[in-house]
Amino acid sequence: MTVEQQTRFRTLKDIPTPDYMSPGGSLCAGCGGLLAVRLFHKVLGPNLVWVNAAGCLTVMVNYPYVPLKSNWLYTAFASAPAGAQGVRDAFDILIQKGKIPAEEDVKVVVLTGDGGAYDIGLQSTSGAMYRNLDFYYLCYDNQAYGNTGFQVSSATPIGSATATTPPTPSEPGGNMFKRKDLFEIWRAHKPPYIATLSSSFAVDFLRKVEKGSKMKGPKLFISLAGCPTGWGYDPRETIREEKLAVDTGIWPLKEAVNGEVKHTYLPRALKPVEEYLSTQARYEHLFRPTKRTEVIRMIQNDVNNYWKMVSKDENVEIRLVGE
Amino acid sequence: MMIRVRFHGRGGQGAKTASRILGTAAFNEGLNVQDSPVYGAERRGAPVAAFTRISDGEVLERGYVFDPDVVMVMDSTLLDNPTARPLDGIRRRGVLFVNSQTGSSFHGIQTARPDIRVATFDLTGEALSLVGKAVISSATAAAAARIIGLVTDGSLEKAIRSELEELGLNDELIEKNVTLGRKVFASLEPVELSTDEYFVRSGLVPFELIMGERTGTEEITSAGNSNAVKTGSWRIFKPIIDYNKCTACMVCFAYCPESALTLRGDYKPVIDEDNCKGCLICYRECPPKAITLEKEVREF
Description:
The structure holds two protein chains of two kinds. Chain A has one domain: Rossmann fold (3-Layer(aba) Sandwich). Helix content of chain A is 33%, strand content 14%. The longest helix of chain A is centred in the last third of the chain and has 22 residues, at 293-314. In chain A, strands 2-1-3-4-6-5-7-8 form an eight-stranded mixed beta sheet, with helices on both faces. Chain A is α/β, with parallel strands linked by helices. Chain A contains ten helices and eight strands. By secondary structure, chain B is an alpha/beta fold. Chain B has two domains: 2-211, Pyruvate-ferredoxin Oxidoreductase, domain 3 (3-Layer(aba) Sandwich); 224-295, Alpha-Beta Plaits. Chain B has ten helices and ten strands. Chain B is globular, with a radius of gyration of 21 Å. Chains A and B meet through helix 1 and helix 8 of A and helix 8, helix 9 and helix 10 of B.
């Protein structure tokens, strides 16, 4: 077994008990993004600098109250990876000059939403990967601009209603653009480690962050972030919603080590996407007043096509829906 | 004649929609109206305010209502909230409405402001039983409409329908909200409004009540100090752990987004009641169903 394969997380009971965050921040109850940050922090320990692009999670801080017990730097929307470069360089130089001891080094983590990762900060992320910056990158993906009232982003899935893509007589299906495949955009840069995460698969989540932490260079993560306010479900359902996204095949859990893709969770039989879509208000127009079978089928076909490729590439049997 | 109504709620309760429904209802009566919400960089559960101005003449004022004739407080824990400050500026002989579960008569407020009328009603309880959700936009609008007395139940009903339709609610939910609005409207009495220009800008709530424990430099500069915010007041239901049933599986601990659960020596969880926002993920996910719910009854 290689060093990369060894893990201290076998069951949920192996979750580190220290919390590096306090309760009382200003985010919505049941925020999936906050849960992802909390789990991420648990694996990496207390010595972090979060470099936070504008987005929902910046609002966890409401001066003078901060939930983080670690360090936090707030940057403009587009420039979090550039900020991370500055912090990384500063620490490297200070350690090199002997001004701070090496054991006081910190890990630098970019924290950004999907708006920052898929749209506004894409170029500076690309730049940081190009420069092989030794940093972590956590995108909490709630699939829209949640902070400003849930407007469409290039991470918004087909069929989702948002503040700027409501169902209308001319576009009754809501958003009709496909999500960007950010995982593949990142993979084209060949960073050492990329992974998708969901807090609902907590052990998988913890293991991936641990695995990334053993590598040098850019380590990038996209975590699904259930959003009760924007997606329109009861806050208590966050884990169930995320789990359903994985079990329907909508949110594949995978990683790419030096560009080589492997799925870390292979559902034997996918659940129908309808089970997931019908639980969220952002998809309500697909079911009421009339059922928009053509849109639902389109979403299901996309999922089926994806997993057909996976079956072939990884030589596994996956039962698809309706085929 | 102009009536200024200020709504204070928590994000998600429907303060903005309440101000819209009231405005539309008065508009349906042929009056001139204006409504607007204000909220900061916070979200569900955080204090928000909304304003409705109703006049038989022109409405030339704009912006924040500093001197309301009627204040609608949708969550009684906002009464001493330093961000919301709902008691600020109520006009002499104005009306304070509080959504209250206990039927308290708010003696402290009456003593400080004997001139104002305090009205209460359990809107949340009514909404939970009639609609099944703790959203009280239509209920609060109905209470405000009844208190100012310029709106008939027909205009109110029309306004609830049109505003909730615009928000994309389904017919079943709209009907339930109409029923809720009618019930609240019929349960309250109109108040003879005889406010005058005089208003009290502040100084009503004692300083200690607004500031709570003193906030000093040490607290401001310490990391992870957000637990001083006490977001426990956001909750509608409180999770209660049955330690006999708890198997120390740590599922709730893993999934609590807020870090509001800590583990005891035996790995069973303890809830930080001051700060748990009541998302109820722990209740939903607990494998042995060792967590039950209790409706919060908090009072100012």
